[in-house]
Amino acid sequence: MAQTLLLLLSATCLHTAGFTRENDLGFNQPAVLSGVQGGSIEVPFSFYFPWELAKDPQMSIAWRWKNYHGEVIYNSTQPFLHEHFKGRLIMNWTQGQTSGVLRILNLKENDQATYFGRVFLQTTEGMKLWQSIPGTKLIIHALITTPGSPFIIPSAVLTAGLEDTRGQRNPSLLNLGAMVGMVMAKVVVIIPLYGWVIFLWWKQRPAE
Ligand SMILES: *[C@@H]1O[C@H](CO)[C@@H](O)[C@H](O)[C@H]1NC(C)=O
Ligand SMILES: *[C@@H]1O[C@H](CO)[C@@H](O)[C@H](O)[C@H]1NC(C)=O
């Protein structure tokens, strides 16, 4: 009875071990990373496999972007680098290492995508090729730029100017590109406006 139990236990253990071995293949990289436009980002990666390497493993690392079957942007073997990343992609990885760092410099807004690491190598059981399934989602934050205002405009004047022009001749005054233009427009509108107010006040005064 005890012997049967032991046999059953070892059978379970063996099965578990076998199951683990089959899944002992992967490509690790962060799930999400975020960078700032103009900055740089580092994507650390590592991979593991259950096989024995061939004498000449001919390891090759490649990166795809956008989706699992997306365009290849880099291949260490050819070597190949996508035009979009010219001069901005650095691979810190050397032949035979199972880890490294992908670095993207001078981040652009349209670098925002998912990046998938991919490895090719020769084993005693033949050539193997696999890739990260989830990849690394790269989020790019835009630089926060505040439009420079060369003039300090009293808020009362600004409000008056906006209220008096809104819905009249120039409803898009707010959208004027240059601050200078905006100030000029207000001066043009406000001076006659103040003149009109003063005129009304002056006209009404003798009636009191
Ligand atoms: C390359 O990455 C390794 C760690 O993987 C690090 O120790 C080394 O400093 C890096 N080299 C460069 C030039 O970034
Ligand atoms: C890189 O390119 C070579 C040659 O085309 C190819 O054999 C290899 O599989 C590629 N590497 C990866 C990781 O896709």
UniProtKB/TrEMBL annotation:
Transmembrane segments: 176-202
Membrane-related topology note: Single-pass membrane protein
Alphabetically ordered keywords of this record: Membrane, Signal, Transmembrane, Transmembrane helix
Compartments in which it is found: Membrane
Domain of life: Eukaryota
InterPro entries in alphabetical order: Ig-like_dom_sf, Ig-like_fold, Immunoregulatory_rcpt-like
Coiled coil: none
Record's signal peptide: 1-18
Ribosomal protein is among the record's keywords: no
GO cellular component: plasma membrane
Record's protein name: Paired immunoglobin like type 2 receptor beta 2
Organism whose genome encodes this protein: Rattus norvegicus (Rat)
Gene: Pilrb2
